[in-house]
Amino acid sequence: MEEEYTALLANQTWDLVPPPPGGNVVTGKWIWTHKRRADGTLDRYKARWVLRGFTQRPGVDYDETFSPVEKPATVRTVLSLALSRSWPVHQLDVKNAFLHGTLTETVYYSQPAGFVDPTRPDMVCRLNKSLYGLKQATRAWYSRFATFLVTLGFTEAKSDTSLFIYRHGDEMAYLLLYVDDIVLTASSPSLLQRIITSLQQEFAMKDLGVLHHFLGVTAKLSEDAGPPVADPTAYRSLVGALQYLTFTRPDITYAVQQVCLHMHDPREPHLTALKRLLRYLRGTVDYGLFLHRSSSAALVVYTDVDWVGCPDTRRSTSGYAVFLGGNLVSWSSKQQPVVSRSSAEAEYRAVANGVAEAFWLR
């Protein structure tokens, strides 16, 4: 906690001021977490002072909150290209990333618990920088980081604004920003190091070295089949975790999509299907997505669809798989938005989805 508080002071995160008359003062709380390595072992203990964003008032403490998040297909595509070109790939860690965001709104909040200034206990903090928990924290951090990358010569990719591209002569680099996780690859180790050095001069950033770890038969289920589950929150938590797992497990995409359909009102048969999926995962913990070096850069798309497969809405579920030079970089299993009146119509809708993804990737 002392380390976190010291970092907040060093970053000049706030100024102590008298409470605003009639103004809104956001509250906060300390959060303690265990940071673990990729193999699950304990890395370190961490404390963070987090604001209660739900005490903010729209139009007073915040306006826009949207911040772009890259598509998983972008990550896989960049990694596939870097691998095929034998480029070095590093992961970077920004210390207290959200604290670098500059606020455009005026936000007041109470002094951190346990660290109240004894000479000015009645004063409140007026934020100069963003802070974890604020509704606009992610947006402020993204704007700050993207603005600096532009000064280094990077440009935002029009197809995915979380991908930044650097081109100068024969030199080229890709930078992926996933909230506060950064993956950087460049055409040469010297260019990679120059970019890292420039970033470290601007932000408290650590080079974690070569990238090792990043992010991390079903039955047809009817909406009202069986009684409601006893703990719907646990169901939603498990399904949310499985959505992250589909990042590297295309084999469970369809099954996860099916259990996701019932998060609003999970029933016992849905929970049974979820448990079956967990048992499958327990027996296939060594499965994953393997990217290999390829001399080809061709995009190949496969599509498929069922017809009126949903017993409730009679809508079809279409899917596609996109390969870049032999590496699977994008896939989807999604219910179609309307009812198809024939299997041919359903197939054409599935093909259209696959073609649209291929155009986006290209």
UniProtKB/TrEMBL annotation:
Residues 11-218 form the Reverse transcriptase Ty1/copia-type domain. Signal peptide: none annotated. PANTHER family: GAG-POL-RELATED RETROTRANSPOSON (PTHR11439), RNA-DIRECTED DNA POLYMERASE, PROTEIN KINASE RLK-PELLE-DLSV FAMILY (PTHR11439:SF524). This is Reverse transcriptase Ty1/copia-type domain-containing protein. It comes from Paspalum notatum var. saurae. The lineage of its organism: Eukaryota, Viridiplantae, Streptophyta, Embryophyta, Tracheophyta.
